[in-house]
Write a structure and sequence with these properties.
This protein is of the alpha+beta class. 44% of the residues lie in helices and 22% in strands. It is built from 15 helices and 15 strands. The protein has helices at 10-19, 29-42, 78-81, 103-106, 142-185, 190-213, 232-238, 242-245, 259-272, 314-327, 338-347, 363-370, 372-387, 413-425, 447-468; strands spanning 46-52, 56-63, 70-72, 88-90, 113-119, 128-134, 217-221, 227-230, 274-282, 288-298, 305-312, 353-360, 395-400, 403-409, 434-441. Strands 3-2-1-6-5-4 form a six-stranded antiparallel β-sheet. It has a five-stranded antiparallel β-sheet with strand order 8-7-11-10-9. A hairpin with a 5-residue loop joins strand 9 and strand 10 (288-298). The longest helix is centred in the middle third of the chain and has 44 residues, at 142-185.
């Protein structure tokens, strides 16, 4: 095993890492979402946001390593990855002398494949990596590498923004503390009183400037959710003038079905003193905006109120959803893919489904005679042909190559027979000849068993046709 050497700028790198104030903090929805997307996009069972400390690697977020929060640095793959600025990929650890006898390879979690994208900030060596791990040798596709790099960039930006938000909140807390201390001593010492007045004026001026010019979304509201103050960034996010927001409840900007969750948030922050999460608010133009917030209850004044700080993550939320959709669809035909099929099997365990397997006839001859571009056109046209003959709630899945699957949701034998007959009757309008096999998946039975029966009937149909010819 070969431990990673220390980066040339290790002292400065550790100072920047400690300055983020992120080590040993609680899980946060954004970073948890990033590793889930990385796992889905790459098809890896393990994904981590790993930060390289002095003698350990600590996981800010992870999937696939339940109960594990850190491992020693001297056996860390990520300690190697932070030396560069591009993806560090180990396709087979058993064939790499640096890792073949690594404890993480020889024992749990049995790493055979690793890919880590450095989390770079302000130049220099990385703070850590966004990495994915598998138990079998493999390699990422160019698209998966690009997505992993994009996600790592988002993690770096989020860490910087998080550190800025922590510092801003600390500055606000320091200013409030200073103001109270000065006011208590005003009557005892005239000189202190004068200094207190001067300091208070400067503090209020700095607070107003921070409140006004902050890129973060800052507001205060009472215990009923009524807005007491709103900074320009928050008003701009919602597209309203500040004065039209004051005195209105945040619930007015929510879809009706979201109001009970908002009321639950108010109860939590009263009971616990702080709360973090996401709010969905409707802007003036009708668009939904997503705010990731961390709010605290101020109980030191005569009237209690909530100090809110948030970030508008609408675009990031949209990208996460798009990446999730990409991970479940075939890029050529836009049908669902096998990963979606696996999820569908779990979701429909107690549902009756109709399954129709479709195998294209003589597709290899199309590729060999007319080229792969024509073959791709045939696949796209076949997907369109199949989608046009099923309901919106049904699914068309490309199993791979020239194989498709039609899944009829909540179907019975009659519906399965009708759709199968419709496809056969319309075969002349299909871009290529095809053979069908159909089977029912009964409630409580696995989807794989129904697919096997449908495949068997497809083979029988093809064999019977060949025998007649």
């Amino acid at each position: 095993m070969l431990a990673a050497p220390l980066p040339d700028d290790e002292v400065r790198r550790l100072e920047r890492l400690r300055g983020l104030a992120v080590l040993d903090t609680a899980p946060e929805p954004f970073f948890d979402g990033i590793v889930r997307v990385a796992s889905l996009v790459t098809g890896s069972p393990i994904a981590l946001v790993s930060l390289i400390d002095h003698d350990r690697q600590w996981f800010k977020a992870q999937v696939g390593l339940d109960g594990t929060t850190e491992t020693p640095r001297d056996i860390s793959f990520c300690a190697h990855a932070i030396h560069g600025s591009t993806l560090f990929e180990v396709r087979d650890t058993h064939k790499d002398h640096r890792f073949a006898d690594n404890p993480l390879v020889e024992a749990d979690p049995n790493i055979r494949f690793y890919a880590g994208m450095p989390i770079a900030m302000e130049g220099g060596s990385g703070m850590g990596t966004l990495c994915v791990i598998d138990h079998v040798p493999r390699e990422l596709t160019p698209t998966q590498r690009d997505i992993l790099a994009t996600l790592a960039g988002l993690v770096g930006m989020a860490l910087e923004q998080r550190a800025t938000a922590v510092e801003r909140n600390a500055a606000l807390a320091r200013e409030v503390t200073l103001e109270r201390d000065l006011r208590r001593t005003a009557q005892e010492w005239e000189m202190h009183r004068r200094r207190a007045v001067t300091s208070l004026e400067a503090s209020e001026r700095r607070f107003r400037q921070l409140f006004h010019y902050s890129l973060g979304l800052i507001c205060t509201h009472d215990l009923d959710g009524v807005l007491l103050s709103v900074n320009p960034a928050a008003a701009k996010s919602l597209g309203y003038p500040i004065n039209s927001l004051m005195g209105r409840s945040l619930a007015e900007f929510m879809r009706p079905e979201m109001v009970p969750a908002f009321n639950a948030y108010l109860r939590r922050i009263i009971d616990e003193g702080s709360d973090s999460g996401r709010l969905e608010l409707r802007a003036a133009n009708g668009e939904l905006r997503i705010w990731a917030y961390h709010n605290v209850l101020d109980e030191d004044d005569e009237e209690r109120y909530v100090l809110g700080h948030a970030q508008d993550i609408t675009e990031q939320h949209r990208q996460e959803r798009q990446l999730r959709e990409w991970s479940l669809s075939d890029p050529l035909t836009h049908c669902f893919n096998r990963r979606y099929l696996g999820q569908l099997g779990d979701m429909t365990r107690d549902e009756t489904l109709g399954c129709i397997t479709v195998d294209l006839d003589h597709f290899k001859a199309v590729n060999d005679t007319y080229g792969h571009q024509r073959g791709d056109d045939v696949l796209v046209d076949m997907a369109t042909f199949l989608r046009a003959r099923v309901r919106d709630e049904d699914a068309v899945v490309r199993l791979g190559g020239d194989e498709f699957l039609v899944v009829l949701r909540s179907a019975d034998d009659r519906q399965l027979a009708e759709v199968s007959a419709r496809l056969r009757d319309d075969a002349q309008s299909a871009p290529i000849g095809f053979t069908l096999g159909a089977a029912m998946k009964l409630a409580g039975t696995p989807l794989d068993a129904a697919l096997s029966r449908a495949d068997q009937r497809l083979y029988e149909a093809r064999a019977s046709r060949s025998a007649i010819i």
